[in-house]
Amino acid sequence: MTDEDAVLLYVGGPLDGRVEVREARHGAPLPVVTHTHLHDGPKVVHVYDLHPLTPAAGVYHLRPAEVPVDQSPAAR
Prior knowledge:
It contains no helices and 5 strands.
């Protein structure tokens, strides 16, 4: 790890607690990361938004599920 690499922490969802070191040669951390989980059922997609702390550190927070109004439990 160099002084220019970024340390990124994931909060929430299946990546909760994961720490990633993004090497500076890969550029700045992405503002949004999508994680797709494949299993026996339908695929599950989780979206994480980056919240920078410093130029070399940030936290990816799980984006709240976006449920269309006509499919929310209260609309039924």
